[in-house]
Amino acid sequence: MLIQVLQERQNSIRIVLIALFIAISQFISAQKDFQKELSWGVNSGLTFASVNFTPSVRQSKLNQGAGGFSVRYISEKNVGLLFELNYSQRGWKEYDPDQPEKRYSRNLSYLELPAFTHLYYSAGKHFRLIANFGPQIGYFLNEKILESNIKAPDRDFRHTATIQRRFDWGLCFGGGIEFRTGIGSFILDGRYYYGLSDIFNNTRADKYAASSNQVMIVKLTFLI
Q1: Which residues are CB-neighbours of 128 under 8 A, at least 6 positions away?
Q2: pLDDT tier at 161, thresholds 50, 70, 90
Q3: Which tens digits make up the pLDDT trace of 172-210?
Q4: Which value, in Å, is the radius of gyration of the alpha carbons in the chain?
Q5: Which of 82, 84, 44, 85 is CA-nearest to residue 66?
Q6: Mean pLDDT for the chain?
Q7: Which residues is 210 bridged to in the sheet?
Q8: DSSP string across 159-211
Q9: For position 2, what pLDDT does the model report?
Q10: Are 40 and 72 in contact (CB under 8 A)?
Q11: Does the pTM of the predicted model rise above 0.85?
Q12: pLDDT per residue as tens digits for the range 94-127
């Protein structure tokens, strides 16, 4: 009986070792077939921006644009890095359905540098499903009031003050699809930028405890 049990255990160990050997062999083979990728190109898209004020301000999304340069390096199978240098238009648009006659919107322009972890999954020869996430820093360039019909008695600090904090940082994440062709890759993706810094000072003596950029982005990128 004991001999039979030992034989069964030995057989089980052999099966596990064989399965482990096959898995390791397949992994090594996949790594041998993998080729690292370095690609660069341009991107352009639409931004849907707002500012998260505390106390809150009723808003709708301000639609503008963004674009810049992209560099992607894939060092491991399904994993890589994506860097961009972009000109991005953000800001906010106030809308109160109870007072639709009062309108105000301001453009905020930034130079931004996202640094993403890039993940992908091959869905056939020409398609990849992608995901990007990571930190993003930005620097405020200039501002412009796009629309304002709010009279002096109703004007608030945010309507008259210039941007007080030029440096901006936060987290960005999103996903999309990549179409690979003989001339390069076309990537359509959506992202959300969650700002962790404020555009106005936020001490107890200041008007707003928070005033962070919040931006949804839809982008088309071309890489070669």
Answers
A1: 120, 121, 122, 177, 178, 180
A2: very high
A3: 999 999 999 999 999 999 999 999 999 999 999 999 999
A4: 26
A5: 44
A6: 89
A7: 54
A8: HHPPP---EEEEEEEEEEEEEE-SS-EEEEEEEEEEE-S-SS--STTSS-SEE
A9: 42
A10: yes
A11: no
A12: 988 888 888 999 999 999 999 999 999 999 889 9
pLDDT 10s digits, 58-96: 999 999 999 999 999 999 989 999 999 999 999 999 988
Tracing tokens 């790594």 back to the chain, one arrives at 31
Q: Which two tokens stand for residue 5?
A: 């049990």
Q: Give the H/E segment covering residue 85.
A: strand 79-94
Euclidean distance between the first and final Cα of the chain, in Å?
Answer: 67
Parallel/antiparallel/unpaired status of strands 62-76 and 37-54: antiparallel
**Residue 224: count of CB within 10 angstroms of its CB:** 9
137/123 Cα distance (integer angstroms): 32
Question: Angle at Cα 177 formed by Cα 175 and Cα 182, nearest 5°?
Answer: 140
CB 168 within 8 A of CB 137: yes
Torsion of CA 157, 159, 164, 168, to 10 degrees: 120
Q: Are 45 and 218 in contact (CB under 8 A)?
A: yes
Amino acid at 125: K
